[in-house]
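Hey team,

Filing this mostly as a record. A colleague (T.K.) asked me to run one chain through the structure pipeline before their review meeting, and I want the input and output archived in the tracker in case anyone asks later how it was produced. No errors, nothing strange. Just documentation.

Input sequence:
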Amino acid sequence: MTRETREIALLLAWLVCRDPNRFNASAWKRAEAILGFRKYGRHTQSVAALLVADDLPRYDPEESGEAICSAPMIRRGGTCGQPAQDHSYTADPETGWRTPVWFCRRHATYGRELNLALADAPEPIPNRGGLLPCYFRLKSGLRGWEQNYKWAAHTADPWLRTEWLPPRYGVAAEGWPHPGRDEVAEVVKPKLQLVALDGELVDEQTPPTEGDQMT
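Output structure:
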């Protein structure tokens, strides 16, 4: 869990379970009031939305590998080995996860072939975000979290340079496949605990009161 996701998760836990005003306003409105807003050009951004945007369910490819052209050399065998100018990816046929492949200006055609092959690759299993739905239930279910994430994504990128779409694997990380793990192993549900000033542990086992459910 990143620092940003932890910050919004702990605030929401307090707002849902301990905030004296939790019966009068939704947790989202209270979170926005506490965290405030910031200017981004002509736009005003909700800091709460920016923190939620850090938890967007998504796949981020690992940008690793040496920037050396790996295009195959047909005549002499092996790979080019020259300093690369750009890169594309190969995709795992099962997980869709990407591995960077570098190419030099001379082998730009090789790079275009890699890009074309990606069009037939499966959608990658997400490897980032999706933690907040594992800890907080909404009255509207996971569909409500989809709407919250879309709101957060638009706030973080008001010009919609990159449109966020929910992955076909769902928005809750606890439901994503985990390649390489024992499929029959018991899934342990994530648990978030809030320690109150009196030392009481507040979590999903704490008897809820009216207003505790996020809206």
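Quick notes for T.K.: Confidence is low (pLDDT under 50) at residues 201-215. Residues 84 and 156 are 32 Å apart (CA to CA).
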